[in-house]
Design a protein that fits this description.
CATH superfamily of the largest domain: Type I PLP-dependent aspartate aminotransferase-like (Major domain)
CATH architecture of the largest domain: 3-Layer(aba) Sandwich
Bound molecules: pyridoxal-5'-phosphate
Number of strands: 12
Oligomer: single chain
Strand content: 5-15%
Length: about 425
């Protein structure tokens, strides 16, 4: 018998303070970058240095009595990887520590996390109050499916605090927003929304995908639940899909049972990619933000650009709020929208397509949050399925381009954008 089989509890499920990295989960006082590199790992008795990938669908028990104990709740070990998996747990612990939450629950994708949020916290007759600028599929999920199950959904201008207050109804159960938002990178006042929610017994859920905990920790600002599409910056290199929710033990237990019952679970391989991604998240976000600030400066000074939506610009309506809300200096994220002007021969949509099609290096793709700079025309791609009214409501105009600024040399990114902008 190996040593690990002699343990009378499944050692993977218990924090062992004798393994020094486990100390990071025990509330000891470490800095955020140390947590990003080390939190959540639980060494097995093999003594591996790097985090292993546990590719197993199921787990064995020592006896029938041991199996029964796992089911009746007297033991908390692994049962099945749709429920728990050690590689997934490592990612969950590390992300929870970075977001300053009690617990995280990983999901198969960002949309999986948002669906989990809906199933866990809403029921027929409830009202979901959401920001008018959201990831396209979130709007689709809310309008097409939540409505089908009797959840009332309405939207408000995400930057207008009075509009949020006026839109609260007696049956409002969840307020949902992104900050910065997709695709216009608008900022929501999370502290204000938190007060509003507390006064009305509403859960505040913030999609922190664009900022990441490197820039902003919504739970510290008063949110109840943080949502992630880990597909974006947490990986940061466009390799795998995943998502997560972060919050209190109680709220996460409700989310966990939805994930377990609904099969919305994250794969162990993907969890491992995200775990390693978190180690470099802050360094990457610093570099992304520096590049984005320079690109925004270039765009705002270009004669063929009418508007740049980016809170890093000092005259942006939310500049002050973003500066206060983001804890990284000069960190406003790296995703921006900009609107191009029509020319004599091109309307605004044709002008936008010309700028996109004139790039030689930047990737034409709807993905974002990647080391590679990506460019999208939201009106005809990510927000195409919305009705014209919903698109207008979300501020997605025909001349709008969404840019996710990557980690290439910033001079090359600017040169690539200038090709189309200069020749309109
Ligand atoms: C991509 C994205 C999602 C959805 O995540 P997936 O991993 O693609 O399912 C949700 N919210 C935001 C802000 C996103 O950018």
């Amino acid at each position: 018998m190996s040593q690990s089989q002699n343990h009378d509890e499944n050692s993977l499920n218990k924090l062992d303070p004798n393994w020094r990295n486990d100390a990071l989960d025990l509330g000891l006082d470490y800095g955020m970058q140390t947590i990003a590199v080390r939190a959540g790992q639980h060494r097995t008795d093999e003594g591996e240095h790097s985090e292993p990938i546990f590719t197993t669908s199921s787990y064995v028990y020592r006896s029938s009595a041991d199996a029964a104990a796992h089911f009746d709740g007297t033991k908390t070990g692994n049962v099945y990887s749709r429920h728990t998996n050690p590689s997934v747990r490592t990612f969950e612990r590390r992300l929870a520590a970075l977001e300053n939450g009690e617990r995280a629950v990983a999901t198969a994708s960002g949309m999986g996390a948002i669906l989990t949020m809906c199933l866990a916290y809403l029921k027929a007759g409830d009202h979901l109050l959401a920001a008018n600028q959201l990831f396209g599929s979130s709007i689709g999920l809310f309008n097409n499916y939540m409505a089908k199950f009797g959840v009332e959904v309405s939207y408000v201008d995400c930057f207008d605090n009075d509009a949020w207050t006026n839109a609260v109804q007696p049956n409002t159960k969840v307020i949902y927003c992104e900050s910065p938002s997709n695709p216009l990178a608008q900022i929501c006042d999370i502290g204000y929304l938190s007060e509003l929610c507390k006064a009305n017994d509403i859960l505040l859920v913030v999609d922190n995908c664009f900022a990441t905990p490197a820039l902003q920790r919504p739970l510290d600002l008063g949110a109840d639940v943080v949502i992630h599409s880990a597909t974006k910056y947490l990986d940061g290199q466009g390799r795998v899909l995943g998502g997560a929710l972060v919050g209190s033990d109680k709220l996460m237990q409700e989310a966990f049972t939805v994930v377990r019952s609904g099969g919305i679970s994250m794969s162990p391989f993907n969890a491992w990619v995200f775990t390693k991604g978190l180690e470099t998240l802050k360094l990457r976000m610093q570099a992304h933000c520096q590049n984005a600030n320079q690109v925004a400066e270039f765009l705002v000074n270009h004669p063929n650009v009418s508007t740049v939506h980016f809170s890093g610009l000092s005259d942006h309506s939310a500049h002050e709020l973003a500066t206060r809300q983001h804890h990284m200096k000069d960190g406003y994220g790296a995703i921006m929208g900009f609107e191009v002007k029509a020319s004599d021969s091109r309307d605004t949509k044709e002008a936008a397509w010309h700028v996109i099609d004139s790039t030689q290096m930047v990737s034409i793709t709807n993905n974002l949050g990647d080391a590679k700079t990506t460019i999208t025309h939201p009106a005809t791609t990510t927000h195409f399925r919305l009705t014209a009214e919903a698109r207008a409501e979300a501020g997605v105009k025909d001349g709008l381009i969404r840019l996710s600024v990557g980690l290439e040399d910033v001079e090359d990114i600017i040169k690539d954008l200038a090709r189309g902008l200069d020749s309109l």
